[in-house]
From TrEMBL, chain A:
Keywords: ATP-binding, Lyase, Nucleotide-binding. GO terms for molecular function: lyase activity. This is Phosphonate C-P lyase system protein PhnK. The keyword Nucleotide-binding applies. Belongs to the ABC transporter superfamily. The keyword Metal-binding does not apply. Residues 7-252 form the ABC transporter domain. The lineage of its organism: Bacteria, Pseudomonadati, Pseudomonadota, Alphaproteobacteria, Hyphomicrobiales.
UniProtKB/TrEMBL annotation, chain B:
The gene is phnL. Residues 5-242 form the ABC transporter domain. The lineage of its organism: Bacteria, Pseudomonadati, Pseudomonadota, Alphaproteobacteria, Hyphomicrobiales. It comes from the Bacteria. InterPro entries: AAA+_ATPase, ABC_transporter-like_ATP-bd, ABC_transporter-like_CS, CP_lyase_PhnL, P-loop_NTPase. Keywords: ATP-binding, Lyase, Nucleotide-binding. GO terms for molecular function: lyase activity. Pfam families: ABC_tran (PF00005). This is Phosphonate C-P lyase system protein PhnL.
């Protein structure tokens, strides 16, 4: 276990004109750590995810990332080419809407293989073999490898998105509400799959969710956001079982027990 | 020798923001030690804060004041000041916590649930599974259930899985919150024997046992939690269980 953090955010702030996206967000993420960011719509949690993954530029503050070489750099200092390379190799992004995270005009196997080609794999047989291996790991039958994602159910598309992201062995995966919009039984299967993969691969994950049960099942730490600000952060079971902040208490007490 | 666990002037209040900031005092001035090889039992009527003390010790609840020192090898860690990473690390190596309830993880088999806990820092996969099988047989969980996830098990079966998991792991501090609550006499006796074995191995145990037979069998001493009541004198009449 390295004591140096993999990703560290300091005083991140994003303004959309006069409107606040988020402000004063600081945290450290270590290898193998799963951080849940919870809050309602408009809380700033998706803005935060975009800032961390360099899709948006912060108005103020910084994000530092420790590369595989051990070098830590400010993400704002990366060139466009370096940034894109990072997004294809070290990072993954699982989106709420699989249609945004997948290439819908490319087969399931192609979706997975494409990430491999982006990091320089050229041997067709190997790419196909690895793609099939990853489809199997996310519980998609080999027979579906040449099918288009459009013919897949919602749960399968999310699993395909996960395979596409994990095939390059990323170090951090950003997840934006990966289970919302799915049937409860499909959600449970997907969550369980994510839980297993994250622990087997020692992935660091930042998962944005409005669902406290998702945070409890997957994450080590939870950050609660409201109105663009972090109102409480800590060990997930502590935040959920003994919330200190008024808003967190409201969130926790608003959930119907299963 | 330093104790495995020491609580110093620990207090716990809940502030209920949704109830006009009502302050609910649970305990205050909680001070005691637990040494290696002893089983200290928290006594007193229900609702007096016994579980809260265990939850603060494992970092599940915030302590409102005081220090909770847990020995981790040569160092002492104050749980009340530890970072989430430090607490997770303590739970993975030092502190075991067995509650009445099993938090079921969908689709993971019973054997895997227990083996996951038994997998030590250097122990191999097969050793962990062997330990898991041993614990499940000791607790008389029918072998035909081992490959099923515990989600659909009865309360008593789930609790045995929970105990098997809690006791399969090698920890120097064990926190037991009514581990025998819904067990039959035979399995209660097994748990008593397992606790005695842990004591002989030098494990420090802090527990809550409502069952008097179990408590009398395992307790090295009993601490009456009503003496930590927030308003002195308020619960003096309830000093019956000690």
């Amino acid at each position: 276990m390295s004591d140096q953090s993999l990703l560290s955010a300091r005083h991140l702030r994003k303004m959309y004109g006069a409107r606040l996206g988020c402000t004063d967000v600081s945290f450290d993420l270590h290898e193998g750590e799963v951080l849940a960011v919870v809050g309602e719509s408009g809380s700033g949690k998706s803005t935060l995810l975009s800032l961390l993954s360099t899709e948006l530029e912060p108005t103020a503050g910084s994000v530092h990332y420790r590369f595989r070489t051990g070098e830590t750099r400010d993400l704002a200092s990366l060139s466009e080419a370096e940034r894109r390379f990072l997004l294809r190799t070290d990072w993954g992004f699982v989106r709420q809407d699989a249609r945004e995270g997948l290439r819908m005009g490319v087969s399931a196997g192609g979706n997975v293989g494409e990430r491999l080609m982006a990091v320089g794999e050229r041997h067709y047989g190997q790419i196909r073999g690895k793609a099939i291996d990853w489809l199997t790991r996310v519980e998609i039958e080999e027979a579906r490898v040449d099918d288009m994602p459009g013919s897949f159910s919602g749960g399968m598309r999310q699993r395909l998105q996960i395979a596409r992201n994990l095939v390059t062995h990323p170090r951090i995966v950003f997840m934006d509400e990966p289970t919302s919009g799915l049937d409860v039984s499909v959600q449970a299967r997907l969550l369980d799959l994510i839980r297993g993969l994250v622990s087997d691969l020692g992935l660091a994950v930042i998962i944005v969710t409005h669902d406290l049960a998702v945070a409890r099942l997957l994450s080590h730490r939870t950050m609660v956001m409201r109105g663009g600000r972090v109102v409480e952060t800590g060990l997930t079971d502590q935040v959920l079982d003994d919330p200190q902040d008024a808003y967190t208490q409201l969130l926790v007490s608003s959930v119907l027990p299963a | 020798m330093t104790p495995v666990l020491e609580l110093q002037d620990v207090s716990k209040n809940f502030t209920l923001h949704l109830r006009d900031q009502a302050e609910i005092g649970v305990v205050r001035d909680v001070s005691f030690k637990v040494d290696a090889g002893e089983c200290v039992v928290l006594g007193g009527p229900s609702g007096i804060g016994k579980s809260s003390i265990l939850k603060m010790t494992t970092g599940n609840y915030h302590a409102s004041g005081g220090r909770i020192l847990v020995r981790d090898g040569d160092v002492e860690v104050d749980v009340t000041q530890a970072s989430p990473r430090e607490i997770l690390s303590l739970r993975a190596r030092v502190i075991g916590y067995v509650s009445q309830f099993l938090r079921v993880i969908p689709r993971v088999s019973t054997l895997d649930v227990v083996a996951e806990a038994a997998r030590g820092e250097n122990g191999g996969e097969e050793q962990a599974r062997e330990k898991a099988r041993e614990m499940l047989s000791l607790l008389r969980l029918p072998e035909k259930l081992w490959n099923l996830p515990p989600a659909t098990f009865s309360g008593g079966e789930q609790q045995r899985v929970n105990i098997a998991r809690g006791l399969a792991a090698s920890r120097s501090l064990l926190l037991l919150d009514e581990p025998t609550a819904s067990l039959d006499a035979l399995n209660r006796q097994t748990v008593v024997e397992l606790i005695e074995q842990k004591k002989r191995e030098g494990v420090a145990i802090l527990g809550i046992f409502h069952d008097e037979d179990v408590r009398d069998a395992v307790a090295s001493r009993v601490i009456d939690v009503s003496r930590f009541a927030p308003q002195p004198g308020a619960s003096q009449k309830e000093l019956t269980h000690a």
